[in-house]
Amino acid sequence: MVMHRALFTWFILLVFFILLCLRLESRTHWNWFLIFVPMWIYDLILLMNAIFNVFIRCKHETIRTLFKNENILLLVIVLLKVAAQITLCLKLEYKFLNLQVYHVLIPVWIMLPILIIDVSTTLFRKEERR
């Protein structure tokens, strides 16, 4: 099962990078939203998986323990990633919007501290178990 997920992830990334290279080399003039479709398909699968797992845990947990669920964190991270992709596509496709780079990167700036805290707490918990 894990091997299938890894192969699917690599395949999605390969398709995305091929489309990105074609667009950046000016071989095609496709819309930037079309280039990001493989990433959005992958994000949709992650979102469905996270939402399904959150609802399964909702039956067995109280509201206080629901926010400790790691699937809520996955849900937030994927939504921030999609928001970053949408703002990047808006900046690249529609020049007349005059979006600044720091406006485009706001979801990434929100996502990075959350990920740093999550990785740090996970590492410290594993060190305590040894």
Automatic annotation (TrEMBL):
Pfam families cross-referenced by the UniProt entry: Tmemb_185A
Protein name in the entry: Transmembrane protein 60
Keyword annotations: Membrane, Transmembrane, Transmembrane helix
Lineage: superkingdom: Eukaryota
**Transmembrane segments annotated in the record for this chain:** 33-52, 72-94, 100-124
The record's annotation in InterPro entries points to: TM_Fragile-X-F-assoc
Q: Which organism is it from?
A: Acanthoscelides obtectus (Bean weevil)
